[in-house]
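Deviations from the work plan: none for this task. Representative record:
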Amino acid sequence: MSAAQVLLEMRSITKTFPGVTALAEVNLVVRESEIHAICGENGAGKSTLMKVLSGVYPHGAYSGEILYRGEEVRFGDIRASEHAGIVIIHQELALVPDMSITENVFLGNEPRKRGAIDWKSAQRRVLELMEQVGLKEDPDTLIKDIGVGKQQLVEIAKAFAKDVKLLILDEPTAALNEDDSRHLLDLLCEFKRQGITSIIISHKLNEIEAVADSITILRDGRTIETLDVRAGGVNEDRIVRGMVGRELSSRFPEHTPDISEVFFEVRDWTVRHPISTERLVCKGSSFTVRRGEIVGFAGLMGAGRTELAMSLFGRSYGVWQGGHIYLNGEEIQLKSVSDAIRHGLAYVSEDRKAIGLNLLDDIKTSIVAAKPAKVARYGVIDEAAKHRVAEEYRRDLRIKTPTVDEGVAKLSGGNQQKVVLAKWMFTDPDLLILDEPTRGIDVGAKFEIYGIIQRLAAQGKGVVVISSELPELIGLCDRIYTVFEGAITGEVARAEADPELLMKQMTTTKKTPVS
Amino acid sequence: MSGYQDLKKNFFGGTTSISRQFGMIFTLVAIILLFQVLTNGLTLTSGNLIAVVSQYSYILILAIGMLMVIVAGHIDLSVGSVAAFTGIVVAKAMQNYDLPWPAAILLGLAVGAVIGAWQGFWVAYIGVPAFIVTLAGMLVFRGGNQFIGNADTVPIPGGFRTIGAGYLPEFGLSTGYNNPTLLLGAIACAAVVWREWRARSTRQEMGARPVPLWISGVRLVVMVGVIVFATLRFAGGRVGTSLPVSGIILIVLVLAYSFYTRNTVGGRRIYAVGGNARAAELSGVKLKRVNFFVMMNMSVLAALAGMIFVARSAASGPQDGLSWELDAIAAVFIGGAAVSGGLGTISGSIVGGLVMALLNNGLQLMGVGVDLVQIIKGLVLLLAVALDVYNKSQGHFSVIGSLTRPFRRQETASAAARTAPHGESSKAPAVG
C-alpha cells in the first residue's frame, strides 16, 4: 500500500521573516496519487509552506530543499512551479467576476495561434475541462453569475488547463455548503483514481478524516507528526490533539440554558432581491427569539439566511416587501442600520474582512465603531475612555494582541472575529445575529467564541447563529430553524436535532409540523 | 524594545500615516535649508515668508477640504472653477449692487454651500462618481465665471481686500515688532506647552506609560523654538506688515479641521467610510450624509479660497483658480493620504502643501523659469508617492522598516508573519 512512490518531499524547510520564524525545519512527504491533508491552527505555517512550494517565496528566500519526482527543484516564481505541474488554488478565489468561464479558465494561459488568442480551441478545450470537473454550465456565463461552489470548480478547471500533477487546495470548502463540499471532495477522490495528487488544507476535520490518505500536522511552524489514515485509528479527536497539543475534551463549552419569554418576533418577512426584483429572497419568514436563547439558522449556501438577517438589520439588503418586527410585543420599524442599533439589534457579518471591519483601523477604534457616541461627549471622542473600553474587551474576550493600538489587519482570523464581536457587544444589544461566527477560525478560537456566545445568552440576550456547519448548530443552539430557498421550512428543538433531520428540512420546500 | 521606532512615534504622535509625514517634515526642513543656502538667505527673510503665506494660503485651505474628500474615497476636480465662480459672483455683487463687503463674504460662502450641495447631491444621493460630477462642475463653473464676468476682469473694492491682502493692525508699545503677531506667537507657545501636558496626562489616564520626560522636553524646545523664530520673522517685517490675515484664517481652519477629523465622531466617520464603506454602513454610519458633507464642505472652502484670492489680487478674472485642484490634490498625496481613501491627516496635507509652496517659491527666487518649476514639482509629487508605495509594497526592504523590525516585540512580529506578505503590503502601512 505505501509502496506508492514519493512525489514530493520537502526537507527541513525554514522560512523566516525579519524577526520571526514562520517555518522551522518543516518536513513534508507526499506520495503519488494520494490526498494529503495539512492541518494546523491559524498561524501554524500551513499557507507559508504552500507558498514556499508554489514559488511565491522563491528559491533562496527559504532554506531547505524541495524534491519533486526525485529531483531537486528550485522555483523562482509561481510560473515555474505551475510549469512543473504544481498548481495552488487559494482560499480567496482568483477569478475575474466580469469575465466568462472560458476566459477565466485560460486566464494567463491562453491558447495562442500566431500571437492572437485562439478562441476556437479554447472553447473546445473548456468543454472537456468542465466535463472533467463535473461543471454543468454554459461556458460563456460570467463568473459573477454562478455560485461560489461552481466558481471553485472553475478554479479547478483552470488548474487542469495547466496540466496539473499536484493540486494544492487552501481551504477549498470554507465558503461552500455541505452539498458543494461533498461534490468537491468526491471530485478529489476521482482525481486520485486518475493519478492526480492533492494537498488539501482545511479546518473542517470531518472532511479531512473522510477523504485524506495521510495527514501532516503543523504547529507553531514545526512538523508535529504525519498520520497515516489508511492504517486506521485516526479520528477528529486524534487530529485535534495533534493540532493544539492537548486533548479538547469537548468541542463545546458546558452550558445550561436559562431561557425566558419571547421578546423578539418576526412575522411574514418578505424581501425582494436588490437587482432582479421579481425574485423573492425571503418568503414570508416568521420566527421568534426568547431571552437567553441561542437560535440557529441552518440552510445551504444561498438559502437566504444572510439575506434574511441583513434585511432585518435596518434593511441593509434587498427591497423590503412586507412583514413585521415585534420587540417586547410592540411593533417596531427598522428603516436604517442606526434604527436597528438603537433598538438593540446587532449583526455580525459573515465576511469580517470585506464588510465587518475597516482593516485600516486599530483595534480600539474598531471596537467602538458601531457606537462611537458612547465614548464621546458633544461629538468629541474621549480617547482615554475609548482605550479603557477596548482594554476591557481585550481582557474579557482574550484578544491576543500586545496593545489595542495594533491594527486589526495584523490579527489572526479568530482574534479579528473577537474584535467584531466586541464591537457589537459594545452597542449593548438585546439581540445579536451572528452570521457564520466561526468561519475560517481554528479549533481553539472556535471554542472560545462558543463560550462568548453562551455568556451573552446567559446575560439574557437573544442570540441568532447562522452557520453552515451542522455540528456547530447542534452543539450550540437551543432551537434551530431550517431555511430553504428563502423560506423557513422547519423548527427543531435541541433535543430532537440531528444532522439527518436538519439536512432533510434544509433541502425541501415542504413545511414540517412545528415541534 | 524598539528604540528608533518608538522615538519616531513619540515625537510625531501615533497616527497611522506617520511614516510619510515623518519623511515629509524632514523633506520640508531640507528644502528650506537648501533654498536658504541657494538663495543666499532670501528664503527665510521676513518679506519672503510673509509673501509665501499670502501667496499660498488659499491652496492650503483647499488642501484641508481636499484631504477630507480624498479620505472619504472621492476626488474634487472642480475647486479651481468653484473658486473662480464665487470670486466673480462676489465681485459683481459688490460692483453692481454695492453690497457691503462683510455681506459679500457671506454671499460667497453661501454660493459655495449651494454649489457644494449640488455636487454632493449627485455624488451621495444619485451615486455618480465624484470624479465625473466634479469634472462636470469644473466645466460648468469655469463657464459660469466667464458668463457672469463676460470673460473680463472685475475689480474688488477696498474693504474686501483685507481677507487676501490685509495685515494685523499695529498697536501698543513700540517694540520694533508687530505686537498682535507677537501676542499670537505667545499664545501659540502656551498652547503647545498645554497640549503636551494634556497628552501626557491622557496617556496616564489610559494607564499607558507616558512618553519619557526628556522626549517631551526636546519636542517642546523644538516646537517653541520654531514658533518663536516664525513669530519674530512675521512680526519683524516691513512696518505695516505682519502675519497676513489670510494666514490667520488658514491657521484657524487648520486647527478646527484637525480637531474635527481627529477627535470627533463626525470626523472619524469620514475615515470609516473611506476605509471600508460597507463596514461603515453596517455599523450605522449614514454613508450618504458623510459623502454629501465632504463634497459640500469642499466647495465652501473652495469659495473661501476664491474670495481670498480675488481679495489679494484686487480683481476677479476669467483665469482665476486655474489648475488649483491639481496643487491641492498634490499637497494631500505628498502629505501621506492613501489614494484608496481612509488614510491621511490635515497636518500631513499642510506639510505637503508647504513642501510644494516652498519649492515653488525657492525656485522662483533663484530665477528658475515656470517651465522647469512645473517639471520639478511633477517629479517631486511622483517620487514622494512612489517612494511611499514602494516602501509599503516591499515591506521588509524599506530602510526604516529594516532598521526597526528586528527589535519588535515577539507577539507583534508573529502576528505580522501570519498576514505576510499580503496583509502587510496592502493594508498595514506605517509600522515599518
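Chain B touches chain A through 51 residues (CB under 8 Å).
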